[in-house]
Amino acid sequence: MSEKADLFQNLETFKDFYSEEIELICEYFSIHKFFDLQEIMPKTGRDTSFGLLLSGEISIIDDHQVDNPSRIAGDFLGEMALLESIDRQADFIAASDGQIAIMTFDDIENLKLKHPYLAVKLVHCITQSAVENIRNSGIRAHRKYMILMVDETKMSDLLDWVQKEIDILYNIPIFAPEWVAQSLQQNINLNVKQVINSNVLVGGADTIGAQIILGNIKALVCLRDPLARRPNRASIDAILRLCDTYQVICATNIQTARAILSAFT
To answer: Domain 145-264 is classified in which CATH homologous superfamily?
Structure first.
């Protein structure tokens, strides 16, 4: 095993990864030294990378004065921007000398192209770490988002429903697949909060599951034809199981979609 891979091998974070997997993953990270009181990964607008602390300690200074615990070896840094595809609100200040491994979002996509299983496994590891950090901090997630998904045969039904409920939906941050978002914008002039691109990992379909696990989703509307054969049925079923597990309100037809709007008013 390479010297670089040894830095990852000794972290509890990668206990479920084989040595060969760690060897492959670490090639997509760049290693950087930092010094006490140095600002790490300065905010520059839209985040394009996340970090993994290899040694030392980093303090998290939140704009909203939220009490965040320090990050130590094995902890991820900036992972919420990765999972939620939003701008980071906190500053990272070194509390000691140390080393950090940084991976760009583009590198995750490159890893997915060559080793798709490994990329998904890494994102799952990051998601689990984020969930544990939220639980340990005692900070409750804000269930405020709605996910809109639909079969192509039900798109007209979705547009009719959105048009009738537009006054309410305008005030709800919405996640939707790219083609649904385009249709909503073109036909109703409704802009979604986040577009889900099924072809990528960062901001892609796995974002739905991550958002549910993180506790940010209040409701899911998934209009579908129960008799139609769908190539993505396994993915839809997995999302619905997550909703059951994490107590997310679900609607799979227009009548139930109308009913769940009361949760937002």
So the answer is: Methylglyoxal synthase-like domain (3.40.50.1380)
- Across the chain, what does the average pLDDT equal? 84
57-90 pLDDT, tens digit per residue, is 999 887 554 556 789 999 998 887 766 655 666 7
Distance CA 122, CA 110 (A): 13
**Do the Cβ atoms of 99 and 56 come closer than 8 Å?**
yes
Query: Taking a C-beta distance cutoff of 8 angstroms, is the pair 29, 85 a contact?
Result: no
The dihedral built from the CA positions of residue 238, 242, 244 and 250, taken in this order, carries a sign that is: negative
**Mean pLDDT value of segment 38-53:** 83
What is the domain partition of the chain in residue ranges?
A: 3-137, 145-264
The pTM assigned to this predicted structure is 0.65
Query: For domain 3-137, which architecture applies?
Result: Sandwich (2.60)
Whether the Cβ atoms of residue 179 and residue 206 lie closer than 8 Å to each other: no
Q: Quick one: how far is CA 149 from the chain centroid?
A: 17
Q: 12-16, 220-224, 240-244 — which is least confidently predicted?
A: 240-244
Nearest alpha-carbon partner for 172 in 148, 200, 141, 153: 148
Burial of 243 (0-12, 13-18, 19+ CB in 10 A): buried
